[in-house]
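note to self: dont lose this again. the chain is below, predicted strucutre after it. 164 aa total, dont forget to put it in the shared folder this time
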Amino acid sequence: MAAEVQISPGCTAKIRHPVAVPVLTIVTLGIYGIYWWYQINREMVDLGKAKGADGLGENATTSLLAVFPGFLILIPPYFSLYNGVKRMQRSQEVTTGDVTFNGWIVLILILGGFVIGFTSIIVPGYIQSEMNKVWATLEGGGTASAVPETPATVVTPPEPPAQV
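---
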């Protein structure tokens, strides 16, 4: 089961297992993938509203429509993915202060899917693992302004014995 994280009152996000997303997408013949794409985009919209941050999307339905039925035109899903990657990077920046999500990895995996078919199915798992970092920060009580700081520990060496 996925753990739920409170974004704001009435808005939640899910920490999903990165392997479950591609597996459920395959098992449901792509239906879960469409549902998942809508959900992660909705979660980022909710995060943007809760934190007052720009660049996290305004309407998750637009991203969904670009994927389905937009795939029939071929181009819209790639725009949706590109914009989704930018929003995911922005969500990491807003919550953790550090961007670890690499869009080039997504591009390489998708291009690899044209040569070796199964590599593109890794993309949703990678995306979910990076989004889990965002939601784990919120779950741990992180703030949008900065990464929680840990107090520095000062170690003082013992004083040498006095010589007489």
